[in-house]
Amino acid sequence: MTDTTRAPEPGPVHPVTARPFQVDLRGVVDLLGRHLYSGPRVYLRELVQNARDAVRARADLAGGRPDPAWGVRIHPADGPGGVLRVVDDGAGLTAAEVGDLLATVGRSSKRDLLDLPREGLLGRFGIGLLSCFMVTDRIVVRSRSVRGDAPVEWVGSADGTFSVRELAGAEASGVPVGTEVRLAVRPDDVALLGHDGALGLARTYARFLDVPVRVANPGGTWELVTREPVFVATGERREDLAEQVRAFGRDLLGAEPFDAIELAVPATGTRGTAYVLPFAPPPGARQASVVHLGGMLLDDRWDGLLPDWAFFVRAVVDTTGLRPTASREALVEDDALELTRAELGAAVRRWVLELGLSRPGRLAEFVAIHERSLKGLVVHDDELASFVLRWLRVETSVGVLTVDELVSRYPHVRYTETVDEFRQVAALAAPDRPVVNGGYVHDADVVRRLPDVFEGVTVSRATVEDALDALDVPPLDDRATVVRLEDRAGAVLDAVGCDVVVRRFDPADVPALYLAGRDALRAVDRGVARQVAPSLWAGVLGKAATVADGSAAGPVRPRLCLNWSSPLVRTLAATDDGAVLGRTAQLLYVQALLAGHRPLRPDDRALLTGALTDLVELSAAR
């Protein structure tokens, strides 16, 4: 009998062959140009960056003592068909290194070059040379290693092929230690590889490198591009360069900086200066920092270096400890960057605190310029709030006051949540009990913080309903006349969805106020939306309004508050002429709307026109 429970015998084992990826160089170059780098301009940055690293590597081999003559020289192309050359006095490459490193996508020549440590080297990803194919179809690299090997030539083409050969004889004798890269100019890229283009790119990217970079001029002279990065100076050196630091800020901002703040984060090798803007940035603006990596520009408008609240400064920094992205146009979001961001924010905060302690008048000037952003800052920063909050200004029913003036005069602070509420409540507020307009950005939050900073200060919200409840009612002897006026005027204004109440308030020359709480204003706005919406949406909005406004007491409606202290209102209450009372009530309603900065709806404009027409006709009939 056959045993059917046994596993079948294994078949023959076929070996798995590992095969390398095939790389389409044209596709890689297209990927770099469209999705990694911001554009072909970066080609010169990549070449100069490699040249600078080679010079640093040679200096390290010499015990950290570079020859002052070592540097980078850029020979721009002299027109169509010309060649751009970038020459350095660095460590150079051997034939083995050229064949292995320059032709392998993703391998950095600095990773194992001469067994040197990575510290101080800018390049990481081994794709920089490929960026040159965005501006040329042919790259020629000639190099002689500092270790004495024969010079070598590497030629790469945009079709994905390359060749390597060792130079000998007279050809080799003219090759010094270092590297020369040649790019043949394509007709469409003459501007980038010519003198003006190359010089502009060198100034943009390489002016703060720690090795000299020079660009050849057409007349045979050289222009030194590199200069001292004064913005990273510290200690006594910074004091000596104080005027130059400010001059750099003037060039950066286009105006005299309000102040310059020294920045330093030793843990990540980050140093620089934060320039305080002498003007308020536009609404919605983000902070734009200038970031260099070892002197090489990464981005001149990066928004990820400082905390979001610090957009009243523009920082310029150089770092050696933060990691760049593959494009080298931003920094990697990691723990090191998070630490650096926090430390830089702390430096800006310390500057504000020290200003408040040593130069309060100067702090007041600063607050006047950047009040909006500072209001957002003090809401979340207890330490800063204790110094800055008193200098901030708020709008009140008795005028614009600093917070210090407000709390010293009125220890119980009332505020509104919206500008609409403020306009209504302010008209009813007594001079000794002002109300603060909390409708602007952060103002309500600032007011709510006052008890946390000022001892003995209390805060409460003021609403339209509370303001109306606080008004005096007319005397009891006038009660019957007042009720009759409310009923008659209310019937007239029912068509526009407004109730009428009568109260007493100052000043007496204000006959009426339009009062609408938040719920009432929402109902009015929904009504306006229904009037202008297409029929389908008008029906949807109508059903939504029914749900929102439905209650046992009915929908909340605005109120026209007539002032019993006004002679006009008393005269109106005494008239028996229904037409005069109706038209006058309508005009008082429209006048109160306009005084409260409320827009007129189509129904309101029709009411105004009808009231004026009837009054003219009544006057003419007499």
Give a structural overview:
- This protein is of the alpha+beta class and 622 residues long.
- It is 40% helix and 18% strand.
- The strands form five sheets. An eight-stranded mixed β-sheet has the order 5-4-3-6-2-1-7-8, with helices on one face. A five-stranded mixed β-sheet has the order 9-10-13-11-12, with helices on both faces.
- Helix 2 packs across helix 6 and helix 17 (479-493) packs across helix 21 (578-595).
- The longest helix has 24 residues, at 335-358.
- The radius of gyration is 38 Å and the shape is elongated.
- The N and C termini lie far apart (130 Å).
SSE layout and pairing:
Layout: H1 25-36, H2 42-61, E1 72-75, E2 83-88, H3 95-102, E3 138-144, E4 152-157, E5 162-166, H4 169-173, E6 178-184, H5 190-193, H6 195-206, E7 213-216, E8 222-224, H7 235-240, H8 242-253, E9 259-265, E10 270-276, E11 289-293, E12 296-302, E13 313-319, H9 335-358, H10 360-369, H11 371-378, H12 382-388, E14 393-396, E15 399-402, H13 403-409, E16 412-416, H14 419-426, E17 435-437, H15 443-453, E18 458-461, H16 464-469, H17 479-493, E19 499-503, E20 512-515, H18 518-532, H19 535-549, E21 559-563, H20 567-574, H21 578-595, H22 602-621
Parallel strand pairs: 1-7, 11-13, 16-17, 16-18, 19-21
Antiparallel strand pairs: 1-2, 2-6, 3-4, 3-6, 4-5, 7-8, 9-10, 10-13, 11-12, 14-15, 20-21
